[in-house]
Amino acid sequence: MFRKALILVLVVALALPLMPSASSAQAQDKITIAFVPGVNPDPFYVTMSAGVFQAALDLGVEVIQQDPQEFNPTIQTPIIEALVARGDIDFLITAPTDKQQMIPVLEAVHNAGIPVLTVDTFIGDGDYANGEVTFPITYIGSDNFQGGYIMCNTLADILGEGAKIYIQNVRPGISTTDQREEGCRAAIEERGLELVGVDYNEDDPNLAQQQTAARLEANPDIDGIFGANTFSAQGAGAAVQNAGLGGAIEVAAFDASEFAVELLREGTVTQVIAQKPYDMGYLAVSLAVAYLKGYQSIPKRIPTGYAIMNRNNIDDPEIAKYIYTETPREPLPKLEDFKIAFVPGVNPDPFYITMAVGAREAAELYGVELIQQDPQEFNPTIQTPIIEALVARGDIDFLMTAPTDKQQMIPVLEAVYNAGIPVLTVDTFIGDGDYANGEVTFPITYIGSDNFQGGYIMCNTLADILGEGAKIYIQNVRPGISTTDQREEGCRAAIEERGLELVGVDYNEDDPNLAQQQTAARLEANPDIDGIFGANTFSAQGAGAAVQNAGLGGAIEVAAFDASEFAVELLREGTVTQVIAQKPGDMGFFAVLTAVANERGVVSIPKRWPTGYAIMNADNVDDPEIARFIYREQ
User: Fold this and answer.
1) CATH architecture for the domain at 144-274
2) CB environment 239-259: b (16+ within 10 A), e (fewer)
3) 123-156 pLDDT tens trace
């Protein structure tokens, strides 16, 4: 969203003491984040700033905001360069004002050692995972093509085939408004409408009004107008209003400024599409802090969605809350009595111990209470009463858990949700894990590894080492556990694809002693086994111990899922060939981050939050950047 400012550069700074964390001395250092929006004053960016400073207060960090007076790269660039020159900036959050011209500017920031993420707009093609520009941490913003398509598709629904449409836009080269125009053009073509023209107003509502008035005079048969941002819609709506054509011309306004909503209420504007700039700002600061703390499993793209406003729903509080604010607002006080319940799959377990470390650090940063209760076994009959007792306390505000069975735990967690307690799952999931469109959709998100991919990686590497025809044995936990089921599926896929032979699968009920006994029996029954895949911490621990006790270290290739200290010890001595480390610390940290963001009204949480892997072998296990993913024992 880009609009022309009416005053000079505004500097807003918020300095708050950083809350101490027990994790490291680094947590005592002040974090300073620079925030450079596209332009201000602008209701869209004013609302984004509200999210930025709320997160800053919640996390106890300093944000330095500096605002360009125009949405223009020649004005934004020296602001960013001056911030970097200060020497005390730890992270940059910005809405780049041109998708090409701002690439070298932001790359220079990155090369100076300052991580960058973009909000609302992007650089390059916006694909920071595989596109032309990949150094930004993430791009947080709306799907703007979709937004433009929605608006002009709705105009088609109202006006019918053959209707004449006019687009009011800002300037070519702005990533978001370019996409909105593309989305609108796609709907116009698809629905048989006629595009009579496009004008660009340089983010000036007065120019937009003049251009629209001229178009209405030249084309009195215009049926509908699409205003591609706040000032475009504001100018177009004012021109229609001044011409006495309110209600005669359908106006679709992008961005829910108070003026656009006023025009909606009086009938000049037919519909308003609201982005969620508060979400963008809150998530940007939260993810910046997470990244600086070493929790870096951040999606390269976080879409923030829309609310569609019309005359029938505009006074619904659940819709009206997305109207942009015109003036800066004070952040709410810190969450002093917010309680998050955390029920892992089982403990003691190095994986969940490490997850708890991340969760505790996030809880300390946000100043909220984490109540952890651990099942003694990975079993739904043991986990269920723990969760039910926590709900019965009456003071739990949020539940994060690793469900111990993907079907049996559905009604248990649904009861928690129905009691008014939001739920997310970490490491494991319920149903099919597709919380957006699957059989279970009430959890806020599923934060965890891509376990099929992990199993495939491990057994594909065994194939690389052992060659076609090698005999593979799988040590697993129990059917019905979402993650280990997927790891086995991934391994089986690699076995089939690479021409290996599966000699058998055993299930150890998460007992390393049973895993060791089962593996010893398999080695005796099948002395020609070439490779073993241990599908979780205890499976790999038991399998590795059996290979070690049989004196077969180095003779049998063992791929261990989960980087326990014991698995890494076996790796160093050659009994285990490779270890795949999940990132349970990231899972715990981002789960608490999500819980707090949800409490603050942020709804743009990805329904699936993958956390990735680190692959360990004898050559890299002592590299600090790899070794830091070894799980904690306590």
Assistant:
1) 3-Layer(aba) Sandwich (3.40)
2) bbbeeebbeebbbbbbbbbeb
3) 999 999 999 999 999 999 999 999 999 999 999 9
